Amino acid sequence: MTDTKHAHPNYIVIWAWLVFLLAISVVAVYLPFSQWITVTFIFVVAAVKAVIVAMYFMHLKFEESLVRYIAIIPVLLFIIMTLSLIPDTVYNR
Predict the structure, then answer these.
(1) Is 62 helix (H, G, I), strand (E, B) or coil?
(2) Contact yes or no for 49/21 (Cβ under 8 A)
(3) Residue ranges of the alpha helices (H) in the chain?
(4) What does the longest C-alpha to C-alpha distance in the chain come to?
(5) pLDDT of residue 46
(6) How confident is the model at residue 93, as a pLDDT?
(7) What are residue 29's phi and psi, to 5 degrees?
(8) Among the listed residues 19, 18, 40, the one whose alpha carbon sits nearest the alpha carbon of residue 28
(9) By the 8 A CB rule, do 9 and 56 touch?
(10) CB-CB neighbours of 29 under 10 Å
(11) CA–CA distance, 13 with 21 (Å, rounded to integer)
(12) Along the 93 residues of the chain, how does pLDDT read in single tens digits?
């Protein structure tokens, strides 16, 4: 890898965004939506928080493309494995 310098992000601002997204997830439980919509929304917010953590606290934003692609592979495997369990959870209640 090359020794490139980059400016460190403002971790306080990133932390504030993570707390804000957490608050949105907590408040979403009390909104008058169906359980399906609420749970889906909370998972989407959790995915956004995971991307923020990976990009800034794990410094993937500043890495080369190969490292980013290697980090995406487990996420894709998780999505594939989760989607493969949907028929089992839907039809075996």
Answers:
(1) helix
(2) yes
(3) 11-28, 35-52, 65-84, 86-91
(4) 54
(5) 92
(6) 60
(7) -65, -30
(8) 40
(9) yes
(10) 12
(11) 12
(12) 555 676 778 889 999 999 999 999 999 999 999 988 998 899 899 989 988 888 887 777 766 777 777 878 888 898 898 888 877 877 776
Give the separation between CA 69 and CA 87, rounded to whole angstroms: 29
Looking at residue 45, its pLDDT comes to: 94
Residues, the chain? 93
Count of C-beta atoms within a 10 Å radius of residue 42:
15
The reply to whether the predicted model has a pTM over 0.90 is no
Structure tokens at 11: 């971790």
Instruction: For the chain, state the CA radius of gyration.
Output: 17
d(Cα 42, Cα 37) in Å, to the nearest integer? Answer: 9
User: Residue 13: what residue type?
Assistant: V
| Spatial distance between the Cα atoms of 75 and 68, rounded to a whole number of angstroms | 11
